Amino acid sequence: MEKTKTVILAILSLLALLGVSILGLLIYTADASADLTIKANHDHIKIDFFYHGSTVSVKGNSDPGTDLIIKITSPEGHQALKKKGKAAGFLWMNVGSLEFEHVPNLYFLHSTKKIEDLLSKDEIEKYLIGYTALEKHIEIKPVENENEKTRWFNEFVKFKESSKLYSTSHGKISTTSKNGRQDYYILLDWPFQASPGNYTVTVYAVKDGRVAEKADANVLVEQVGIVKTLFDMAKNKAALYGIISIVAALGAGFGVGLIFRKGGGAH
Amino acid sequence: MNFMYLYLPVALTSINILIPVGLGLAVGLLSGLFGVGGGFLMTPLLIMFGIPSTVAAATDSNQIVAASTSGTYAHWRLGNVDFKMGLYLLIGGFVGGLAGVRIVGTYMLIESLNSIKKNKTHEVKTEKESSVGKFLKSLPLQTHFEKSGVTHSALLPVIFGGFVGVLAAIMGVGGGFLMVPVMVYILRMPMHVVVGTSLFQILFNCIEVTFLQAYTNHNVDFILAVLLLLGSTVGAQVGAVFGRKLKGEQLKVILAVIVLAVTVKIVFDLTLTPSLLISQAGGH
Hints:
- The structure holds two protein chains of two kinds.
- Chain A has two domains: 1-35; 37-222, Immunoglobulins (Immunoglobulin-like), CATH 2.60.40.10.
- Helix content of chain A is 40%, strand content 38%.
- Chain A has helices at residues 2-35, 115-118, 121-126, 131-137, 146-162, 225-236, 238-264, and strands at residues 39-41, 44-47, 54-62, 67-73, 76-87, 91-104, 107-111, 139-141, 166-170, 174-178, 181-190, 197-207, 210-223.
- In chain A, the strands form three sheets. In chain A, strands 2-13-12-4-7-9 form a six-stranded mixed beta sheet.
- In chain A, strand 10 (174-178) and strand 11 form a beta hairpin.
- Chain A is extended, with a radius of gyration of 28 Å.
- By secondary structure, chain B is mainly α.
- Chain B has one domain (16-268).
- Chain B has helices at 18-34, 39-48, 53-77, 83-102, 107-126, 129-137, 155-171, 176-186, 191-217, 222-245, 248-271; strands at 5-8, 13-16, 142-145, 150-153, 278-280.
- A two-stranded antiparallel sheet of chain B has the order 1-2. Chain B has a two-stranded antiparallel ribbon with strand order 3-4.
- The interface between A and B is large, with 60 and 63 residues.
- Strand 5 (76-87) of chain A pairs antiparallel with strand 5 (278-280) of chain B, so a sheet runs across the interface.
């Protein structure tokens, strides 16, 4: 009997200990996340008929005096693009395609200072921060050597920047001190070229060349209304969509013809 | 929200409505004047304004349906459509269109074909007229085309129609810019009948191509097509009226200048270093 009591007591003590530990861990985590917060306002972008891009502001607060890096990316994927080159030595033509693996369609990176001044090389690569890290991370096929990879990666970035899907800056995040904390804020143009999908916004708090903390938020971009209806129809009811397109074109052409016949009759 | 911009659901991009309407108007004008669908100008222009290449080609076919309906109707009323010739061209065009849709996306081929074709057009114009004429007379199945006042082998329009049909599907061009010189210099049809007949044939080719593009490749952007056809249908009518006031020779000169200008642009594009060495691949 006495033995059973001892066993029960021991189990209860263990459970209590476990409970206290979990509670402690929870409090610690809560404390940790209170250090760095992030919020993307306008986190649900609706693509309607008159959509021409949007803006997204990212704000939150951090420990005073910390440097910050804000990264927005789409999920990584595969992209096939055409490359131009000289055919017969002087004619610029498409000379083949390039396959890009593990590459985000959108990549924004904004920081309080130059990335190289904030983070060590290892940290930059670990957290995929900046074009140099991205270049190392993605695969490009076919390329013969590292120089060729760098050349096509630079062309790729130029292409993406021209579509406003890639951008980097430093010094544009504004920070203010308030109640012993640091508030940060940046307003970003959201390009209409960014396709529907889920985008991740990450803020990194940097101390002594290392990422001390990070926090995430999401931006959802989706088609709504007539845009969504037409998109779905083009994909899922292709025959009907094709017929409607043709009938509308025939009707418009014939209709304008009739209008002009009436108008032109007087001459 | 800006009402000057509309979002294109299939092209997945936003465009200032004045761009497609203005392009439509300019290209429609050419269509009415010369019986060309204008795709050889429209597709590259749309790509220049950020429309993915495959969507540009497919949507342009849809737009040409409207412009050529408008133009054919105007020319039919003027008595300028040779339906018999149009029918033979169509038989070839239909088969060609089917084949062409299967090879959509191979833009390199188009670009090279494009320049080769232009060279051919010039050759025909300058040296080979008489020998070509003799050869054509020796072909079987000779038949008389009343409206055009010419006698040819029925095989000719079928073959040329087929060739142009392939192009229509690949490039989203009606093929008029090739068909018109062929009808004028090889088939020896009167210029005004050429314009009407070309439009008639283009109309049917583009109906087929639009359907196949929508059905198999999902590349037709309805909103973009509507914006383009707003301009092109009106342009086609104005062009038809204006064309009536010009002589056949004058029309030929203007068309030659435009074909030449496009050729010059292609030469520049091919020889000057492009600002971007990477571009969107077709399809996805």
